[in-house]
TrEMBL record:
It comes from Winogradskyella maritima. SUPFAM superfamilies: HAD-like. Belongs to the HAD-like hydrolase superfamily. CbbY/CbbZ/Gph/YieH family. The gene is pgmB. Keywords: Isomerase. Pfam families: Hydrolase. The lineage of its organism: Bacteria, Pseudomonadati, Bacteroidota, Flavobacteriia, Flavobacteriales. One of its GO terms (molecular function) is beta-phosphoglucomutase activity. This is Beta-phosphoglucomutase. Its EC number is 5.4.2.6. InterPro entries: B-phosphoglucomutase_hydrolase, Beta-PGM, HAD-like_sf, HAD-like_SPP, HAD-SF_hydro_IA, HAD_sf, PGP-like_dom2.
Length: 219
């Protein structure tokens, strides 16, 4: 049996959520807009453009297109300064183990991320070769919670959506996986990701038995 395992990047494979948080908070504060963990949670899985729009909405601010573009560039520049110092130690626990296990079991492995920096990050930590297909923020027109990114990943793997399993840490991403008719596995807090088919705190809570069960499941 052959299934497709689609991984989100930020917050699932690497601990970059903290860098997105720092860069967005700096930007929000520079506009006199409050930005805490609570706001940050709502930006997980959300595209860069949509994230800035939301921050401006929260602060009741309107700015020119020119300023909008400048702020997006500023946020990304700060974010990339963190990214370019990353190494493999910032891989989340046991992710590599499961990527290798799935490969051993000859399953399809894809990345499905909203980030336009996905390939850069995968190269930076030398795991880009682990993925048979990569679909990221440069490849899609509709952002999560739209299922486009995961449907494209399934197509690239040549596996039907019903036979795909998605690992996601964001509310928007779990919704996207559900809308794609895939099995959704939330990585994070049960309180936040209650709409996922399964939720685990992190990959250390998974087991090979669980993976085998997913692989052998009939629709
Ligand atoms: C991921 C993150 C979001 C981020 C988005 C776009 O989904 O969870 O916080 O805004 O990617 O990332 P980018 O690297 O293109 O700014
Ligand atoms: Mg994520």
């Amino acid at each position: 049996s052959n299934k497709g395992f689609i991984f989100d990047l930020d917050g699932v494979i690497v601990d970059t959520a903290k860098y997105h948080f720092l860069a967005w908070r700096n930007l929000a504060n520079s506009l006199d807009i409050d930005f805490s963990e609570k706001e940050n949670e709502q930006l997980k899985g959300v595209s860069r453009v949509r994230s800035l729009e939301k921050i401006l909405e929260w602060g009741n601010k309107t700015i020119s297109d020119h300023e909008f573009t400048a702020l997006m560039a500023q946020k990304n520049e700060e974010y990339l300064a963190y990214i370019d110092k990353m190494d493999r130690s910032e891989l989340l626990p046991d992710v590599l183990h499961y990527l290798d296990l799935l490969k051993e079991k000859e399953q399809g492995i894809a990345l499905g991320s909203a980030s336009k920096n996905a390939r850069r990050i995968l190269k930076q930590i030398h795991i880009i070769d682990k993925f048979e297909a990569i679909v990221d923020g440069n490849d899609v027109s509709a952002a999560k919670p739209d299922p486009e990114v995961f449907l494209n990943a399934a197509e690239a793997l040549n596996i039907t959506p019903e036979n795909c399993i998605v690992f996601e840490d964001s509310v928007a991403g779990v919704t996207a996986a559900n809308r794609a008719n895939m099995i959704s596995i939330g990585i994070g807090d049960k309180e936040v990701l209650g709409h996922a088919d399964y939720v685990f705190k992190d990959f250390t809570e998974l087991s090979e038995e669980f993976i085998d069960e997913l692989i052998n499941r009939k629709n």
